[in-house]
Amino acid sequence: MNTVEKHLAAILSHHWWVLLLRGLIAILFGVVVWFQPGISLVALVMVFGAYTLVDGVLGIWTAVAGRKEHEHWWVLLLWGLVGVGVGILTLVVPGVTALALLFYIAIWAVATGVLQIVTAIRLRKEITGEWLLVLGGLVSVVFGVLLMAQPAAGALAVLWLIGLYAVLFGILFVVLAFKARSFGKQLAGA
User: pLDDT digits over 83-93, tens only?
Assistant: First the structure.
């Protein structure tokens, strides 16, 4: 068993509740976007900024909490820092145009998706259910690429797409949280 992957799996399993919280927040964000389609662009900017900031902080917390156990904790840290950076940028510049917001969201989705896929590849021999992390990463990358390819799409369609992405991403993270919790028990028994 490779110790790098074992340590990364231990970080995720010890902090499975952070994955659960991130998933529930994503689902809540997606549902709010769906049921408030008339939301103004400024309100969407603030909600998105707050969401990515909180998601990034939770990612950083997970990385820092596991830094002594794993020498490659920086991958999780980078994932969180991308979220914090995009969240702060979004909150500091709330008058951003719709096009710039779409590209902020797209860049964030692609970057976090790629980092999730890298994490899953590193864990593939250590855990079961790593495909959920890969699938979550792929959903993020596809979402980001679609936003970049169709920046002139209608605001309502983009809101629905953002909501769908957040709900799917959230569901995958909720399932992953319970998988992480169970493989944590397996690691403890090994």
Answer: 999 889 888 87
